[in-house]
Amino acid sequence: MMKKDEYIEAIEKLNREVLELTSSKEYTLGKKILELKSGKNIISKLITYIKVKKYNHPEPQINTYKEMNHVDLKNKKLVIYMVLVGNYDNIKDPLIMSENCDYVLFTDQNISSTIWKVKEIPESVLKLGNPTLINRYFKMHPHEFFNGYDYSIYLDSNNAIISELDDFIYRLNPKYGIAFHKHRYRYCIYEEVEVCRLLKKGNYKQLICQKKRYLKDKFPSGYGMLECGIIVCDLRKEMAKEIFKNWWNEFLESESMRDQIALPYILWKKDIKPEEIATLGDNRFKNEKIRIDREHIR
Asked: What is the C-alpha separation between 295 and 1, in angstroms, rounded?
């Protein structure tokens, strides 16, 4: 019989092989061709795909802070949480669960689970009205909801948890207490604004206003970008709280509905390089501990 560590390693190896396959150039190109063949406006879709691809900027492997963290999680309390507003995703139970960990789901849906602790969305948050704002509020305010916990891990609800996520805690930069994946394609928010236009994401009119404001403030191009679908936080760290607070305020002020655009600007104002907190890895779509439903990418 396999030991638990061997079982986890085998599961992650299998998931890694699947992720490598589905991320390969051949698979991606074949899928795009099938999508183009099956839909209307083939030429328009192809042109959009080519234009988006030109903004891809793969970079070398980043450094992590795993060797700097010597946390004994046996004496710590961890919460993993998701937010589901409306019938957008189907929540999946974790395949392998972490110890000393609660799994919490905030939702306005009637969902029952033996693993997820289902909690109603507070009226004060529901008043935000827009599902995107509601989701982002939970994403950027873990300290408000998880008093008594040491660490939180937020995941978009299109993530399936394949393995223990304890390793994410060890990858926190102890200086800031917050961790993300590096953006898998781009490192410039000005290019990301144009991709948002091509893919019809966010409020493009407000994105242009946001871009002009950042340019006027001399925010540099190519500063770096982060994926915001998984966020790890040391709930005791004041710097993490400050980053979240400023990020939320900037996100609201911009009215562009794109949190990935606002975050690098906030980091720049605080003289934090994105790579200092992009310590979860280069590409969350290739992280063997999770699997993402690519049909529901925000």
From this structure: 37
Q: Which two tokens stand for residue 127?
A: 């008043």
Closest Cα partner for 199 from 6, 42, 51, 7?
51
Q: How far apart are CA 73 and CA 67, in angstroms?
A: 15
In this prediction, residue 201 has a pLDDT band, given cuts at 50, 70 and 90, of very high
C-alpha to C-alpha distance for 56 and 137, rounded to whole angstroms: 29
For residues 51 and 84, what is the distance between their CA atoms, to the nearest angstrom?
A: 32
Size of the chain, expressed as the number of residues it contains:
298
> Would you put residue 63 in left (φ > 0), alpha (ψ -120 to 50) or beta?
beta
Other Cβ atoms less than 10 A from the Cβ of 124: the count is 9
Are 175 and 240 a contacting pair, CB within 8 Å?
A: no
Instruction: Write out pLDDT tens, residues 74-116.
Output: 889 999 999 999 766 578 899 999 888 999 999 999 888 999 9
What is d(CA 87, CA 109) in angstroms, rounded to the nearest whole number?
8
> Order of strands, edge to edge, in the sheet holding 178-182?
116-120, 101-107, 78-84, 151-155, 226-234, 178-182
Look up residue 156 and give its two tokens: 């978009």
Do 188 and 231 contact (CB within 8 A), yes or no?
no
Tell me if 284 sits within 8 A of 290, measured CB to CB.
yes
